[in-house]
Write a structure and sequence with these properties.
Number of domains of chain B: 1
Largest sheet of chain B: 8 strands, parallel
Number of strands of chain B: 8
Oligomer: heterodimer
Distance between the termini of chain B: 15 Å
Strand order of the largest sheet of chain A: 4-5-6-7-8-9
Shape of chain A: globular
Helix content of chain A: 25-40%
Structural class of chain B: alpha/beta
Helix content of chain B: 40-55%
Number of helices of chain A: 10
Order of helices and strands of chain A: EHEHHEEHEHEHEHEHEHH
């Protein structure tokens, strides 16, 4: 018998959304753009925190976009956790590293296709080494910095090579569409340093299949808001027959673990990293 | 959901789909329908050159779970001599309730004369015809929403369903425009292209009685597509209408 559809859905577990963008785009009107828009929707569905980056940092300039992000989320740092964007083909790495330390940023998004560079060591090697926690001066934190890359924004062979060459690197592949599933499943099976964010993983049985390929500790909930609905995939997660341990890990704990330290505030503090990985 | 508020998926496929690494086990289908809260699924098989092969695959789904699947016919416009007999077999022998056509696969625009005998048959039967619709990606000339307005005015007894309601934003705008041109046009909700705010836009533009829930299973997961409706900002009354009330009325269930 069909389960009843829940028209007043709220999450059963703490949620830390791993894929949210703020700000406007140059090429079209976005459905929503401000922290106020986001927080109102988060409150409606019982979502505690979101990892946020600035649209402009991907679509035009990372340095400007990262600065705009900090301005936008000032006053909301308890719930909106900043993610910076880095362009290794143009941006200054030491300055970027300092900016992440100053702002307490613990993850970085890359956009190889949109920023027009191949994901190769001769372009991104120094940055990748830093992100992997290699070659860091002793006085700096040694915690590696995970990298987010959209499945729409990378050559899969280049990604596979990078993951193999730098095993200490952790990459979160986000927005996997059904057109990417034929290569994502084998890549997850063959590269243990790859994680997957599920916002656009909407092919039939996508969530169980990704868990089967990677284990639930490598799967992260994200919404792709404001392009995607903030809660549709969260609703689906609650309907996939997952046990509470799996649901809590995917909805928040895996992201907390990746970011290395609890972010302040929010219900998510009740679901801290277990050490699984 | 309940007898009073059925949940009916108007858009799903039978057939193994190796090119995107997805399969179509009918028993797993029903498990997912149960988890998603779907009472009945309208299922088609549009990918065979020989339409009867696809329609027979649909019939096997129905044989296995007759209370859960509703048959949707398919015919191939490249074989006009087979189309009408196959439509009659699908409707009168197999008991199918609507027709799905897929211009991106046939590569024939919806308004091409090749479809005319098929659509004339549907008009004479007051049938429901669903087609893929899209704008801004490949194949605008094949299936853009404004073509449906032309068809709906020409074949006024048939009811026309825009699969995906134009799909992305530009298509949705034109889909709502099309729905305003003719009362026999309906918009189906499935998409993988984001669509935050799309349900609110479709209901606000076309009216809650003209929007139909669909999943595109197994290409898209039913639980996600239900989630898009359930968590949208439309009223509960509109959610019930979109999730199944409108489809029940349209299909005479």
């Amino acid at each position: 018998m069909p389960n009843p559809v829940d028209l007043d859905f709220r999450s059963d577990v703490p949620v830390f959304d791993a894929n949210v963008a703020l700000g406007r785009r140059h090429d079209r009107r976005v459905p929503a753009e401000t922290p106020g828009d986001l927080l109102a929707e988060m409150d409606r569905f019982g979502i505690d925190r979101a990892l946020v980056y600035c649209q402009h940092a991907v679509t035009f300039d990372a340095v400007e976009g990262n600065r705009m992000l900090l301005e936008m989320i000032a006053g909301h740092r308890e719930r909106l956790v900043p993610q910076f964007v880095f362009n290794p083909a143009y941006d200054d790495l030491p300055a970027f590293v300092k900016s992440t330390e100053d702002a307490g940023v613990r993850s970085v998004r890359m956009a190889p296709t949109q920023h027009k560079y191949p994901l190769r060591s001769w372009v991104a090697g120094d940055f990748i080494a830093w992100a992997a926690g290699l070659e860091r001066p002793r006085e700096l934190p040694q915690q590696p910095t995970p990298i987010w890359i959209s499945a729409f924004d990378v050559d899969p062979s280049q990604l596979a090579d990078m993951l193999e060459t730098v095993p200490a690197l952790t990459v979160v592949l986000c927005e996997p569409h059904y057109t990417h599933i034929p290569w994502i499943i084998p890549l997850l099976r063959s590269r243990s340093n790859l994680r997957v964010e599920i916002s656009r993983a909407v092919i039939g049985d996508a969530i169980p299949r990704l868990i089967e390929a990677a284990g639930h500790s490598r799967v992260l909930h994200g919404s792709w808001w404001p392009e995607g609905s903030l809660a549709a995939q969260l609703y689906a997660l609650h309907r996939c027959g997952l046990d509470q341990e799996q649901l809590m890990a995917i909805c928040a704990r895996n992201l907390d673990h990746l970011l290395g330290a609890p972010s302040p505030g929010g219900r998510g503090q009740g679901a801290r990293p277990s050490g699984e990985g | 959901m309940t007898d009073a508020n059925p949940v009916i998926d108007l858009h799903a496929h039978a057939g193994r789909w190796g090119s995107v690494a997805v399969d179509d086990d009918p028993d797993r289908y029903v498990e997912i329908m149960d988890e998603a809260g779907i009472d009945q699924t309208c299922i088609n098989c549009i990918f065979h050159g020989d339409a009867s092969t696809g329609n027979d695959a649909v019939a096997r789904f129905i044989d296995r779970h007759p209370e859960r699947f509703i048959g949707v016919a398919f015919v191939n416009p490249h074989y006009p001599e087979e189309a009408i007999p196959e439509l009659e077999r699908a409707y009168d022998s197999l008991g199918f309730r609507m027709l799905k056509v897929y211009p991106p696969y046939a590569l024939i625009p919806l308004t091409d004369p090749a479809w005319e005998p098929i659509f004339e048959w549907c008009d004479a039967r007051s049938a429901v015809v669903m087609s893929h619709s899209d704008l801004g990606m490949a194949g605008n000339h094949l299936h853009r929403p404004r073509l449906f307005a032309e068809l709906a005015k020409r074949y006024t007894n048939a009811n026309w369903v825009l699969g995906h309601a134009g799909n992305a934003e530009a298509g949705r705008v034109e889909a709502v425009w099309a729905a305003k041109q003719a009362p026999n046009i309906y918009l189906e909700t499935a998409t993988s292209w984001g669509g935050n705010g799309a349900i609110e836009f479709l209901v606000g533009g076309a009216g809650q009685d003209r929007v139909l829930f669909g999943t595109d299973m197994p290409l898209m997961d039913a639980r996600y597509q239900v989630g898009r409706i359930a968590t949208s900002g439309i009223s509960d009354e509109a959610k019930h209408a979109v999730l199944g009330g409108n489809a029940a009325r349209l299909l005479g269930l």
